[in-house]
Amino acid sequence: MAEDLGVSPSYLNHLERNQRPLTAQILLRLAQTYDVDVRSLSGEVDAAGVQDLGEVLADPMFRDLAIPRHEVTEVAENAPGIGEALVRLYRAHGERRRAGEAGAGALLDGRSDSLITPSEWVTAHFQAQRNFFPELEEQGEALAADLGSDPHSFANAARERLLERFSVAVRVAPSEFLPDVVRRFDRHSRRLILSERLDGAGRTFAIAYQLGLLEHGETLSALVERAAPPDRATAALLKVSLANYLAAAQMMPYEPFRDLCERTGYDVELVRTRFGAGFEQVCHRLTTLSRPTARGIPFFMMRVDAAGNPSKRFAGGAFPFSRFGGACPRWKIHAAFRAPGRVLTQIVETVDGARYFTFVRTVRRVAPPHGEEDAELAIGVGCELKFAGRLAYAKGLDLEHPAVTQIGPACRICERSGCPQRAAEPMNHGLTVDEYVKTVSPFPFN
To answer: How many of the other CB atoms lie within 10 Å of CB of 22?
Structure first.
């Protein structure tokens, strides 16, 4: 490598140990010699990694250490693997503590990662890949090309391919026959049965999912094996998640999808009608535009229920929200339930001064029967404010001098002292309660 770059082995060793800066000349040689995207060598700190580690070190058990933020940033930047290991260890510790409080017994297999739920493990794995899987993107594009270039005909073409190549027929069944299921593949009768409660986009996605499993099952299994999940349940959930990724790559192939997003200002409504997709499907797809030769805006996305419990978090770039809690109550994702079906925009600023443009909207996963409790969820999508000028949702806003809402991570680690919506005292500060003074926050601290 030293010969390739035209430097001495000792100088290269200093570069590897972060004891010498990467000069512009070396950056260019790296890019030319190894086909590296220079932006990946920019030295930008992973904001999510800094925040995750900061949350861990805010625990009262570390209070006496008084670890400054610059040290947290240095670890996250120079030793991200160590930082992630500490985060996983802290999570396992928390789960073990909660299990002990609940009277649970010892772990069945004695492994600490068994304390991490399958969904948490899969989410962490996707984020480790920056929510981008090039093999699945290539296969999704190839299959979409085989089915035809018109995205409006994708569903019919995919249905025909299932029948012709795999002898699988698609049937839509009344909801009373599938009361708790929206999709079922019967391997014996070779039928894919879909619930009538699924809308058109949901049915198309279900067909794409099944086609992806049958066409590229070996690739999906290889990706799961390479990831080495800790148990069978996690492996199964990971395969489903990867198959979902592949289904989206088939319905919305990378280049046509990114091109339309750029031309429409990432207008989700226009994009979804072109590809016959749902609002949530498009928002999720936005977080995957990380191809080195054709990047889109690096979006993050969160899905929450009416109680604020997050059920989905993905990010193609910085993700400013808590890994161990829900979203800040000052973010409009919670207000979306009061304006169902409307897109609400907001510019937020995190504790470290970073600003993000966000938009939120409610969605329904399936059509609820009359009288059944509504199953609305809220989707929140955002990106760094510097990208907002490219978004249709930011038209007419003063992005140079915007109205900004200050938000934070989970209340227990948030540093904002005067927040009227604080729900818990901070773990790394002592309360300053005064019986003669009432503050806007129920938990005053310095």
So the answer is: 14
Q: Measure the CA–CA gap between 247 and 258, rounded to whole angstroms.
A: 16
Pairing of strands 310-315, 344-349: unpaired
Tell me the Cα Rg of the chain.
Answer: 24
C-alpha span between 147 and 142 (Å, rounded): 9
* pTM (2 d.p.): 0.78
Q: Rounded to an integer, what distance in angstroms lies between the CA atom of residue 46 and that of residue 318?
A: 7
Q: Which amino acid makes up residue 211?
A: L
Closest CA to 429 of 23, 66, 130: 66
Q: What does each C-alpha distance from 307 to 321, 336, 375 come to in angstroms?
A: 17, 12, 12
The CA-to-CA distance between both ends of the chain, in Å, stands at 52
Query: What is the distance between the alpha carbons of residues 426 and 412, in angstroms, rounded to a whole number?
Result: 4
| pLDDT range class, residue 99, cuts 50, 70, 90 | low
Count CB neighbours of 190 within 10 A: 13
Let me know how many helices (H) and strands (E) the chain has, helices first. Answer: 14, 9
Instruction: Classify the phi-psi angles of 6: left when phi > 0, otherwise alpha if psi is within -120 to 50, otherwise beta.
Output: left
- Exposed, middle or buried: residue 408 (CB in 10 Å: 0-12, 13-18, 19+)? buried
User: What is d(CA 381, CA 333) in angstroms, rounded to the nearest whole number?
Assistant: 9
Q: In this prediction, what percent of the chain has a pLDDT beyond 70? A: 89
Three state DSSP letters for 82-130: HHHHHHHHHHHHHHHHHHHHCCCCCCCCCCHHHHCCHHHHHHHHHHHCC
* CA separation for the pair 320, 327 (Å, rounded): 9
* Least confident piece of the model among 36-45, 138-147, 385-394: 36-45
**pLDDT at res. 297:** 96
Tokens of 423: 């729900």
3-state SS, residue 431: strand
Q: For 34-63, write each residue's pLDDT tens digit.
A: 777 666 565 555 666 777 788 788 777 787
Q: Above pLDDT 90, what percent of the chain?
A: 50
Q: What is the pLDDT of residue 117?
A: 83
Sequence length of the chain is 446
